[in-house]
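Priority: medium. Attachment 1 of 2:
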């Protein structure tokens, strides 16, 4: 397809009996690898032409290297947009599909979702379909497959997807026996390319907002994961306090006499554990808050201030919003665990700075702490919901696996804090994702099998 664009710009005609192709001499690459490992940028300039064409090619998306490679593509596009000589706006996102397709495979749908997720919501207006191996007839089955897959793209005045037809045989050697067929194929592709370039003249380029939006998306996903962990921690704290309350009630006589006694309670603690390589290879954690700030996350940064969860050198995720220097990147994460522990009444009084013999003030203090924990839980659950809502506003595809793996938990907690409408919003997102279960299963398999 790229060669066809370049030959069109060069004004190559069929009767010229020549065809120009881009060559990439990387003979050490095995045939199992995609033709482009990360991204390739082609720049094409003609002195006699007013058009300067730049093509960013990402055919590696969704190949057998999986999500790991996809992350490298994201980082490469990010670097390209940040570079002074890089790409700062995009005229079109082209999705190439065989015209004979009657359904998109899970892999294809994942690829298209992933590509579109790199850009702002309005990039759909600049997204077009290029149907390869086409005939003179509209590719009805392929268009139905695109519609069923809910691919977001530009539409015409009849509210139908904008598409262009090509038959990729221009490079085939001329054969008198198939002269008429080859001429029809050539003319079809020439018309398709003419219409495509006319379309480019009519649309406004989009600023490459991926720099901001993708980083914000990663930030929000990290926040949701972190907030879930903190809500779970709040629940463990509440359970511990309730057990303490019960112990005081059961030992009222000892408390009245200010006698020391011992009771057992299940307490929580944090421990550093090795990361499951099936999930991720590295995580960024705060050593002050003892929290996982970007997990799964930031495998590529050498300077932690570059991580997407950092803003103005401070973390946007951990409880105290600590400086990036208080964070570490390694193959371990904090995990909350519980154990049975014996505690004395004297230890409890010291912990709560209460030396009064009557248990009433201490019980009241515990009750106040429980109330504060409930308020904190409500705040954290609402923050997590707000993160999901913000994600819905900035991305084309809200149903990312990062969000879906937390939805059931958030729905349950929203119902607990009496927010049924918010819970229903998340259930609707989940239902929409389940309707697209194919790409999700594809992505789930990648996360389980490829991150090694």
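Attachment 2 of 2:
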């Amino acid at each position: 397809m790229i060669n066809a664009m370049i030959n069109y710009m060069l004004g190559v005609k069929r009767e010229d009996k020549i065809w120009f192709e881009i060559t990439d001499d990387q003979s050490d690459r095995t045939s199992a690898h995609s033709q482009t490992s990360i991204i390739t940028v082609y720049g094409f300039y003609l002195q006699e032409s007013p058009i300067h064409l730049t093509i960013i090619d990402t055919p590696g998306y969704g190949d057998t290297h999986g999500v790991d490679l996809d992350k490298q593509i994201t980082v490469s596009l990010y670097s390209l947009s940040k570079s002074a000589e890089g790409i700062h706006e995009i005229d079109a996102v082209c999705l190439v599909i065989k015209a004979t397709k009657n359904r998109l495979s899970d892999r294809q749908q994942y690829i298209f979702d992933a590509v579109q997720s790199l850009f702002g919501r309005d990039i759909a207006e600049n997204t077009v379909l290029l149907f390869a191996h086409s005939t003179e007839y509209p590719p009805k089955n392929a268009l139905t497959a695109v519609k069923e897959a809910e691919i977001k793209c530009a539409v015409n005045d009849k509210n139908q997807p904008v598409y262009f037809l090509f038959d990729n045989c221009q490079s085939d050697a001329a054969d008198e026996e198939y002269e008429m067929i080859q001429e029809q194929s050539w003319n079809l592709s020439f018309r398709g390319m003419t219409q495509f370039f006319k379309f480019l003249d009519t649309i406004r380029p989009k600023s490459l907002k991926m720099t901001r939006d993708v980083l914000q998306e990663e930030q929000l996903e990290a926040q949701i994961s972190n907030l879930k962990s903190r809500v779970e921690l709040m629940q463990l704290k509440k359970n511990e306090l309730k057990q303490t309350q019960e112990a005081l009630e059961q030992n009222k006589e000892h408390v009245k006499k200010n006698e020391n006694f011992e009771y057992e309670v299940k307490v929580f603690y944090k421990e550093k554990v090795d990361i499951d390589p099936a999930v991720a290879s590295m995580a960024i954690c705060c050593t002050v808050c003892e929290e996982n700030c970007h997990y799964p996350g930031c495998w590529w940064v050498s300077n932690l201030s570059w991580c997407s969860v950092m803003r103005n050198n401070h973390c946007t995720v951990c409880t105290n919003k600590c400086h990036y220097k208080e964070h570490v990147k390694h193959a371990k994460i904090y995990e909350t665990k519980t154990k049975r522990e014996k505690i004395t009444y004297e230890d409890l009084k010291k912990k709560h700075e209460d030396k009064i013999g009557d248990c009433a003030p201490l019980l009241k203090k515990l009750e106040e702490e429980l109330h504060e924990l409930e308020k904190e839980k409500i705040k954290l659950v609402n923050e997590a919901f707000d993160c999901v809502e913000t994600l819905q506003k900035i991305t084309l595809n809200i149903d990312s696996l990062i969000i879906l793996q937390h939805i059931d938990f958030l729905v349950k907690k929203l119902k607990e804090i009496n927010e049924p409408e918010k819970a229903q919003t998340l259930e609707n997102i989940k239902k929409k994702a389940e309707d697209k279960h194919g790409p999700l299963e594809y992505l789930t398999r990648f996360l389980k099998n490829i991150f090694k």
